[in-house]
Hints:
- By secondary structure, this protein is an all-alpha fold.
- About 70% of the residues lie in helices and about 0% in strands.
- This is Ferritin-like domain-containing protein.
Amino acid sequence: MHNTTHMGMNRTGAKMSPVDVSRMAEAALAAPETLPEGKSFAAIRGEAITEADRVGSVPLPGTVKGVLTTGMAKLKGEKPEVLIDKLGERLAFERTGVRLYEALITKCQLAADGAFVPPLEALREIREDEARHFLLLQTTLENLGADPTAQTPCADVSAVASMGLVQTLTDPRTTVAQCLNAILMAELADHASWELLISLAEQTGHDEMAETFRAALTQEEAHLGQVKTWLREAVAREAT
């Protein structure tokens, strides 16, 4: 596997064929209008947003404990479904995180000689941290009487947003540096999302839960710092 950036027959730039670019621009100007008369893309999107349903719903509690917990929160004027939705989102993302690191480990094991590769043991430790975070969230949801196997709306949206990261890591053509860049995006989102979850837990009176999550946030901060360092080293290696 080539593991460095190199020059080749890339014809995607307009300057590769100025004549064809002019002809393309003329054809675009001469093309018939495809939008309905008097409509704009913004107007069409606005109509779709107005008419659309939301992305799923938070499931009703499936246990007596869940019914009691949710009912008490409702009586106090709270919306426990928001916390459950965000817990479900985090659980889904941590599961994806395990898969991302598994793909990165495979990529690193097959990297070309001379390419920068993060220490495999460190990558395995992070993968295990992500798996532990997944189990922590699973237990948290169960303690609230919620079903951790349910796909909440934010979990669904998170899975869609993560698809590009998974595709990048599992694409056999991508380099270790390119994969680290995708991992960095995941870690940045992970870090910010744990901060948000801690804030939400505190706001809803779950101080013990928030304290548990702070330990996970500390680990995520360490992951983020390591990935930044590895990415800098990988790109620097390619540039020299």
